[in-house]
């Protein structure tokens, strides 16, 4: 089996994730600024736990080759992406103090703790089944927003956000993680109990992503 089997196993949820109203409004430049700021604040808190999850992936690895597969994501998150996120948020009127002052929203808590729990209770494949919907989903969101009619560039305050996730650097990094995940899945029969367990992780994480978009849209905690 591979990641496409898991997407097919929750296709309706996956489509809702990729084409959520948050994404559509962002693409058209009509998303409320306060909603985007709320999303950015919660995303910063999410990224801290996301980095921890990749640290757990290194711990759960059976050999150095598997460790090396997760290290680029861990290093990028800790050494670069968190700092870049802080700098990006400054452009939206949010200081680093603002980012840490906002409490974690319910969707943020539920999602991040689920990621860690999936890894603690399961093995590396369980953890990646919960991690991949974020990396792959944002890559597909970037692709969706570059299709004709799905986004406007001129005068869109979110154009640089779209460019970031549609860009070659992010796309390559996301699909490198997906390729490793597919290696972990390769020997698992699609109709097995193990496949159903992994589908559960993948589907739940996808639903968490939907809730995360909605949290931003509603500006809820």
From TrEMBL:
Lineage: superkingdom = Bacteria
Coiled-coil segments on the chain, per record: none
InterPro entries reported in the protein's UniProt record: Haem_Oase-like_multi-hlx, Thiaminase-2/PQQC, Thiaminase_II, Thiamine_Salvage_TenA
EC id: 3.5.99.2
Reply yes or no: does the keyword Chaperone apply: no
Q: Which family does it belong to?
A: Belongs to the TenA family.
Name this protein carries in UniProt: Aminopyrimidine aminohydrolase
User: What species is this protein from?
Assistant: Motiliproteus coralliicola
């Amino acid at each position: 089996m591979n990641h496409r089997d898991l997407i097919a196993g929750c296709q309706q949820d996956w489509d809702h994730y990729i084409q959520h109203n948050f994404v559509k409004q962002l693409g058209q430049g009509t998303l409320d600024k306060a909603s985007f700021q709320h999303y950015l604040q919660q995303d910063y808190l999410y990224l801290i736990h996301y980095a921890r999850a990749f640290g757990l992936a290194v711990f759960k690895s059976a050999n150095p080759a598997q460790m090396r597969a997760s290290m680029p994501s861990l290093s990028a998150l800790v050494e670069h992406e968190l700092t870049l996120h802080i700098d990006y948020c400054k452009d939206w009127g949010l200081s680093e103090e603002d980012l840490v002052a906002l409490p974690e929203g319910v969707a943020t808590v539920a999602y991040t703790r689920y990621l860690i729990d999936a890894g603690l209770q399961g093995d590396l494949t369980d953890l990646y089944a919960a991690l991949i919907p974020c990396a792959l989903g944002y890559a597909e969101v970037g692709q969706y927003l570059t299709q004709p009619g799905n986004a406007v560039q001129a005068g869109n305050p979110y154009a640089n956000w779209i460019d970031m996730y549609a860009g070659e650097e992010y796309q390559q990094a996301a699909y490198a993680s997906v390729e490793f995940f597919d290696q972990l899945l390769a020997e698992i029969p699609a109709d097995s109990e193990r496949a159903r367990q992994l589908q559960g992780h993948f589907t739940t994480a996808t639903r968490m992503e939907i809730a995360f978009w909605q949290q931003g849209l509603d500006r809820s905690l």
